[in-house]
Amino acid sequence: MAAEFSDLDRRMMERALELAALGRYSTQPNPRVGCVVVQGDRIVGEGAHRKSGEAHAEPLALQAAGSAARDATVYVTLEPHCYHSRMPPCTDALIKAGVKRVVCASLDPNPKVHGAGMKQLQQAGVQTQTGLLEAQAHELNLGFEKRMISGLPRVIVKIAASLDGRVALANGESRWITGEAARADVQKLRAESSAVLTGIDTVIADDPQLTVRDASLETLGRQPLRVVLDSKLRMPATAKMLEEKGETIVFTAQQTGGEAIAHHGAKLIRVSADADGRVDLDHVLRELGTLQCNDVLVEAGPTLAGRLLQSGLADELIVYIAPVLLGPDARPMAQFPRLEKLSDRLQFALHRSETVGADLKLVLRPQTRTHSQKLP
Question: Which residue intervals define the domain CMP/dCMP-type deaminase in the entry (predicted)?
Answer without folding.
Answer: 7-128
